[in-house]
Amino acid sequence: MAMRLVAGFPDNYTVEGTVTAGTAIAAGDVLVINGNVLARASSAATIHTVFGVAAETITTADSKIKVTPFCQGQLWEVDTASNTDATELYESMVLTDHDTVNNTDSDVTGDTGVFFCLGLIGATGDKKLLGEFTRLQSTST
């Protein structure tokens, strides 16, 4: 499932952006700004570069993608790398990759802390959190 918008701007609100050539992207993948195009996020994503979540699946032949941009007031259900527990509440976390949040039970205070946990979803083995993405919406530090 990767990332799923559960509250805030409706998931049918999308913008279209240009993507890195030759990259297949699945709906639910987190995207970052890479120069003047969008690309799948990695663990190096920062509050300056995260942009939104892919609203559609595209193949390597596509050059455009529909994206749900991160906006204030949105709540996202995310997949996590490890089982979840209450110690993760109110912590900022990095991404493991484009479709997983790295919930290592340590609060990330730097600019790679792009996801803020507000709640747990389901059992610990479900590996899902509820929270918001932090986007500074600026490329300067």
Provide key terms for this protein:
141 residues; mainly beta; single chain; six-stranded antiparallel sheet
Report on this model:
This protein has 141 residues and is mostly beta strands. It is globular, with a radius of gyration of 14 Å. It has strands spanning 3-7, 15-18, 30-34, 37-40, 50-54, 64-69, 75-79, 92-97, 100-102, 115-121, 128-133. A hairpin with a 2-residue loop joins strand 8 (92-97) and strand 9. Helix content is 0%, strand content 40%.
Short description:
The strands form 2 sheets. Strands 1-7-11-10-8-9 form a 6-stranded antiparallel sheet, with no helix packed on it. Strands 2-6-5-3-4 form a 5-stranded antiparallel sheet, with no helix packed on it.
Please write out the topology.
Elements: E1 3-7, E2 15-18, E3 30-34, E4 37-40, E5 50-54, E6 64-69, E7 75-79, E8 92-97, E9 100-102, E10 115-121, E11 128-133
Antiparallel strand pairs: 1-7, 2-6, 3-4, 3-5, 5-6, 7-11, 8-9, 8-10, 10-11
SS element count, helices: 0
Whole-angstrom Rg = 14 Å
Mean pLDDT: 89
Side-by-side strand order of the widest sheet: 1-7-11-10-8-9
Secondary structure tally: strands? 11
Structural class: mainly beta
Q: End-to-end distance, in Å?
A: 32 Å
Order of helices and strands: EEEEEEEEEEE
Helical residue percent? Answer: under 10%
- Low-pLDDT stretches are none
- Shape label: globular
